[in-house]
Q: What sequence folds into this?
C-alpha cells in the first residue's frame, strides 16, 4: 500500500472514492495544539492538532515515545504518515511523525501536492485514452 500525499480536507472524499475502510496517507502541516487523550484504565495517549491549511485533524502518534512527543511544539511544522479510518474520521493514526526544520517545507509541500495531482490526472487521461482506443479497435473488427 502506498501513502498518498493528501490535504486533510481530501481524506474522507478520497477514502469514499476508493471505497476503502482505511487508507494510508501522508500529511504535513503546523501543530496548532497538543493534548493528552484519556484511555482506558486511566492512561493517557499523546495527540496533536495538525492544520495543513485546508482543515485541522487530530493526529495520534502510535510509535512515538513521550520524550520525542515532548520535542514537538505548538507552531512546529511536521511531516507524518499513517492511517485514516472510516470508523474514526476525526483522527489520523500516525506511524511516523517528524518535525521539519526547513523554513521552505510548507511551500515545497504545496508544490509536491500539485505535482502529485497533475500526475494522477495524466495517468487517468492516459488510461481513458487506452480504453477508448481499445473500444475503437473492437468496433472496427465487427
A:
Amino acid at each position: 500500500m502506498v501513502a498518498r500525499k493528501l490535504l486533510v480536507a481530501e481524506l474522507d472524499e478520497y477514502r469514499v472514492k476508493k471505497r476503502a475502510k482505511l487508507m494510508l496517507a501522508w500529511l504535513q502541516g503546523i501543530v496548532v495544539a497538543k493534548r493528552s487523550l484519556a484511555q482506558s484504565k486511566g492512561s493517557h495517549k499523546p495527540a496533536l492538532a495538525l492544520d495543513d491549511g485546508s482543515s485541522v485533524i487530530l493526529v495520534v502518534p502510535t510509535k512515538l515515545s513521550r520524550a520525542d512527543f515532548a520535542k514537538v511544539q505548538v507552531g512546529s511544522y511536521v511531516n507524518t504518515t499513517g492511517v485514516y479510518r472510516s470508523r474514526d474520521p476525526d483522527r489520523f493514526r500516525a506511524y511516523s511523525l517528524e518535525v521539519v526544520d526547513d523554513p521552505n517545507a510548507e511551500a515545497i509541500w504545496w508544490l509536491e501536492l500539485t505535482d502529485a495531482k497533475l500526475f494522477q490526472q495524466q495517468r487517468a487521461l492516459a488510461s481513458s485514452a487506452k480504453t477508448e482506443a481499445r473500444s475503437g479497435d473492437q468496433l472496427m473488427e465487427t
Q: What stands out?
A: The first strand starts at residue 4 and ends at 5.
